[in-house]
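Schema walkthrough. Field components (list of strings):
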Amino acid sequence: MKKSLILVGTQWGDEGKGKIVDYFSQKFDAVCRFQGGHNAGHTIYKEDEKFVLHLIPSGVFYDHASCYIGQGVILSLESLLDEIEQLESRGISLEGKLRISRYCSLLLPIHAKIDQLREDNKNAIGTTRRGIGPAYEDKTARRSIKAFDLEDNDLLEDKLKSLVDYYNFQIKNIHNAEPYDFETVLKDLKDVYQKTAKYFGDVTDSLEDIYENGGNILYEGAQGTMLDVDYGTYPYVTSSNTLATSVGIGSGFPKSIYSDVLGVAKAYTTRVGAGPFPTELFCDDGEKIAKLGHEFGATTGRPRRCGWLDLVALKYSAKLNNLTSLCITKLDVLDEFESIKVCIGYKVDDEEIPFKSRLLHKAEPIYKEFAGWKKSLNDCTNYDSLPTETLSFLSFIEEFVGVDISVVSNGPNRDDLIHR
Ligand code: IMP
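Field assembly_structure (string):
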């Protein structure tokens, strides 16, 4: 039996997972998304053409790999259709290649509206404004419209009417904004479903078939560990469980949990939106990382906050995800730095605090400093022939975190990867 793999972000998202999933997709029979929604933005370069995927698994670029969206994903049919049409217009067909769970909860335009209205008020957390929070709220509150509800007209009308009434009350009375017209919401939903209906089916059965026939599956995580709704920097998190352990629930295939787990981390740290970020830099080094790393959100275009690699957070993440190996991305972004720091502890008023502390927003990082390698890593193809300074930096990460590095990314292109 070939071993399946769960690939997760170990920081605050944007670790460069798209490129890594794209590379690993070559070796897997299926690629499956299991949480999050179109708040994700996985950037992939294919023969110099840039693609940004939000919902569709990155395996879509390979003929041999089938793609799945499990029921843990919150699904915007509008975004899905948009992505399908964009891929098809560039010669990539999804016919017979993509299957989505009929049990997915749907994210409707009204969810995005509520997200935006809330974010415009005080206490904004800097969401992607796509409606992810409200849609997951509905799922937990048992009022979601599921994809399969669209197969039953009466049921759909009933459920949708309650939902639209529920949000219109808030839109009018809390936010003083224009309510939605139920008939229009219903018609738009039916229209978009009709164009996407052929992609829905039973994902659990398909994954089981692949697995039982000796195939292997790549589970593609979105966002990152520090954004996990339970274990991240709550309330500055997304609304799903981003950890590798949520794969069983999100894919609906319990044997998915017996996979290897590859954690992806940048050689530094970034975060978008509000919330604690102990190693954030407010000096030239931070600006240099942002500039050299092109640190702007793939989904929203927002500039990302930048800082040094936080090994305390990474170690926390490695434990929670039960990582079997690590991938360090964007190593080349540090090529020009005279010295490079990593955070090995936090202090508040001279007392050390752990990552999971109420005081994280006040934490002062304790750094270990490394000499920079001051040369381009781009031509390097072999791990052991990386500069000595780079190897010291990488071995310290492994030692501190307790997980081996199996791959590093040394440039933006698809092939800029060094395997160990
Ligand atoms: P939401 O997921 O849109 O509700 O946003 C909640 C938090 O998660 C905000 O801080 C977002 O910036 C962050 N977030 C959501 N998706 C991503 C992602 O794919 N990459 C990085 N941050 C994300």
